[in-house]
Amino acid sequence: MKTTLKRLVPVLCTGVFIFSGCARQQAVKADQAVAPSATTQQAAPARIEAPAAPQQTAPTTTALPATTIKTDPIQSQPAALTKNETALAGALEKIYFDFDSDVLSDAARKTLTDNYAKLKTMPNVKIRIEGNCDERGSDEYNLALSERRAQSAMKYLVALGIPASRLSTIGYGEEKPAVAGHDEAAWGKNRRDEFTINK
């Protein structure tokens, strides 16, 4: 056991001296080369490789930002809406529902058919259908009902020919009343689906 320790002590001391010497050399090399990212294992073995690494990586690091800058504007251009598309999207009409119902009335179907005609003229626009309820009923029930109302409108538009990928739904329950009030006139205006641009 003592013999093993006697053999290990000089090896460990030598390792410490070598490691501390290498650490100093790496710090000098990193300062001289000004490499953006150099690992300690790559810089330690040879002095010739350290200056060569920055020369090889410099062109690639300057080329990468240039390619990402070029692709970002190209990707964002199709998503941009024209003034006409924005105006048409704002012209989409709301639909209304009977109390405690997600069934589309004849008037709601007619409005959705008109909205379909507008959506056909703006194929780049994605629409979010927002379902709403009046204040009666529990929060949980109204959230579920408002989501079903939005889904009803979406299914109808998809059946007319709008791709489902252009439509999304959300239910707000009673959180976003259109009209303040506690009577049938206010409640009737709050039981609705609205159509907004999905950005």
TrEMBL record:
Entry annotated with the keyword Isomerase: no
Location of the region described as Disordered in the Swiss-Prot/TrEMBL record: 40-65
Topology relative to the membrane: Lipid-anchor
OmpA-like domain residues: 84-199
Keyword list, A-Z: Cell outer membrane, Lipoprotein, Membrane, Palmitate, Signal
Pfam families: OmpA (PF00691)
InterPro entries hit by this protein: Bact_OuterMem_StrucFunc, OmpA-like, Pal, Pal_lipo_C
Keyword presence, Transit peptide: no
UniProt xrefs under NCBIfam families: Pal_lipo (TIGR02802)
Family the entry assigns: Belongs to the Pal lipoprotein family.
Name of the protein this chain belongs to: Peptidoglycan-associated lipoprotein
Top-level taxonomy: Bacteria, Pseudomonadati, Thermodesulfobacteriota, Desulfuromonadia, Geobacterales
